[in-house]
């Protein structure tokens, strides 16, 4: 049964990857927003509130301090 979960996880990751690439293209292929694209795509696919890349960095810095 773990194989089913792995396949499902791989499929979800592929869907997120494709959506993130679509967001990149919609923005005119402007580089530098890869993490934001991934997080937004992940939020859309999984249904979580989207996080911004700079918020994650800030949270990481607070926890590390």
Structural write-up:
With 65 residues, the protein is mainly α. It has one domain. 77% of the residues lie in helices and 0% in strands. The protein has helices spanning 2-26, 34-46, 53-64.
List the keywords.
disordered C terminus; 65 residues; globular
Query: Level of helix content?
Result: over 70%
**Rg calculated over all Cα atoms:** 14 Å
Biggest sheet descriptor = none
| H/I helix tally | 3
Poorly predicted regions are 57-65
Quick rundown:
The chain has 65 residues and is mostly helical. It has helices at residues 2-26, 34-46, 53-64.
Topology:
Blueprint: H1 2-26, H2 34-46, H3 53-64
Helix pairs in contact: 1-2
